[in-house]
Design a protein that fits this description.
Blueprint: H1 5-8, H2 19-23, H3 27-40, H4 55-64, E1 74-78, H5 86-92, E2 97-101, H6 105-118, E3 123-126, E4 139-145, H7 150-158, E5 161-171, H8 175-181, H9 183-188, E6 191-199, E7 208-215
Length: 216
């Protein structure tokens, strides 16, 4: 029996009730971004089809939980891809300036289109590899999600951040093993206040694990 694509594809996740707590008066922008990602993300190769039923809890909410840790200033999002976490954080924190750092042209096109469509005047999109990016003045904080292991991510990201700035990397369940494996990179980058945080307690969502460190 043939099953049509319309009936076989998973449906996008319904917005959780607590989304308003995370985005406040800008929750409508978060809804629009989630809808665009659900409509175009799979076709554009930004997310897999199996991610649609957990689009909010695993992706949108996962990123938004980092927003309270950002400081007014300039934040770079390394390997921004679909805009996770960069666009989500820019929606949640209009008082912060963001630079979305992404080398792939088709992803850059998506990011620029979404920034324009959502009217995010606190976002710039830069097509460049993080290893080749240069900033003057340096960034205040850098975020990243699902880019690479800490041992590779720390060297290419710490160089972009001013002394006293921070690295905020969303990681998976193996983050503690990654921290151990990245001990040499942590020392070489002269990181301090290294910690692994679990965010989102009290919300009905997947745990958000965050590697956080200060660049000295």
């Amino acid at each position: 029996m043939n099953v049509s694509r319309e009936t076989s594809d998973p449906s996008p996740e319904v917005e959780p009730a607590f989304a308003g707590e995370l985005f406040g008066e800008r929750v409508d922008l978060a809804r629009r971004f989630a809808a665009d990602l659900a409509a175009q993300g799979v076709e554009r190769g930004l997310i897999g089809p199996l991610e649609l039923p957990r689009l909010w809890t695993r992706h949108i909410v996962n990123c938004a939980l980092v927003a309270p840790l950002l400081h007014p200033g300039r934040v770079g999002d390394v390997g921004s891809g679909a805009g996770l976490p960069g666009i989500v954080l820019a929606i949640a924190r209009p008082d912060v300036s963001f630079v979305l750092i992404e080398p792939m042209e088709r992803r850059v096109e998506w990011l620029r289109a979404e920034v324009a469509e959502l009217g995010l005047d606190n976002v710039d999109v830069l097509r460049v590899r993080a290893e080749e990016a240069e900033f003057s003045p340096w960034l205040d904080q850098v975020t990243a999600r699902a880019v690479s292991a800490l041992s590779k991510l720390i060297p290419i990201s710490a160089r972009l951040v001013r002394s006293g700035g921070e690295l905020l990397f969303l990681k998976g369940a193996s983050v503690h093993r990654e921290v151990e494996a990245a001990s040499a990179a942590i020392r070489k980058a002269r990181l301090s206040n290294v910690e692994v945080m679990t965010l989102g307690e009290g919300f009905a969502t997947e745990p958000t694990r965050l590697f956080r460190a200060t660049v000295d």
